[in-house]
Amino acid sequence: MLRFANLSLLLLFPLSWFAPLMRASLLPIFGLSEISVISGLQSLWTTDVFLALMVTFFALVAPYLKTIGLALIHFGLMRRKLLPYLQIMGKLAMADVFLIAVYITLVKGLGMGRIETAWGLYLFTFCILASLAVGLLTAKRTVS
Q1: 3-state secondary structure (DSSP) of residue 19
Q2: Comparing C-alpha atoms, which of 51, 33, 17 is closest to residue 113?
Q3: So what's the pLDDT on residue 101?
Q4: How many angstroms from the chain centroid is the CA of residue 18?
Q5: Among 7, 20, 128, 137, which has the highest number of CB atoms less than 10 A from its own CB?
Q6: Which residues lie below 8 Å from residue 71, measured CB to CB, with a gap of 6+?
Q7: What's the half-sphere exposure (Cβ side, CA atoms, 13 Å) at 72?
Q8: Inter-residue contact 82 to 58 (CB < 8 Å)
Q9: 4 neighbors 132 (Cβ within 8 angstroms)
Q10: How far is residue 89's CA from residue 135's CA, in Å, rounded to a whole number?
């Protein structure tokens, strides 16, 4: 069951990266534009390369490497000794969901524009939390 759950994340993560996280507009009279992880990264690359590299690592690379690493452990192709390092990568990935929540709260609090959360935020959050759960259950099975 853990194998199936983890392998499904290999498909769900890329979907969540392209799904709309939020809809935003600077002024209430304009229409809302959809923002995804990928569109946000595209914008970041033109303005702040260092931040874009960090977000790319935390949003894309860390969770996907963790998922691949867990799959390798589940299929006996990687040592279980590396599981604690994979867990750290999963915790780093959770930082993205926190940052998105902070940005939404900040913009709503300042009244600068209008932001609505979209289904991609929930999918992305689900993927991160599911990855954490799969990692914890894998570790629990290892200890038993």
Answers
A1: coil
A2: 33
A3: 67
A4: 11
A5: 128
A6: 3, 6, 7, 10
A7: 14
A8: no
A9: no
A10: 10
Q: Residue 7: is its pLDDT beyond 50?
A: yes
Q: In the structure encoding, which two tokens stand for residue 72, read together?
A: 């390798």
pLDDT in tens, 57-96: 888 998 899 999 999 999 999 998 888 888 888 777 766 6
Spatial distance between the Cα atoms of 77 and 136, rounded to a whole number of angstroms: 19
- In DSSP notation, 6-74 reads HHHHHHHHHHHHHSEEEEEESSTTSPPEEEEHHHHHHHHHHH-HHHHHHHHIIIIIHHHHHHHHHHHHH
> Residue type at 16?
S
Task: Measure the CA–CA gap between 20 and 95, rounded to whole angstroms.
Answer: 18
State the pairing for strand pair 114-117/20-25: antiparallel
Place of tokens 């915790």: 91
Round the CA-based radius of gyration of the chain to a whole number and report it: 17
Reported as a pLDDT band with limits 50, 70 and 90, residue 143 is low
In single-letter form, the type of residue at position 35 comes to I
For the chain, percent of residues with pLDDT exceeding 70: 79
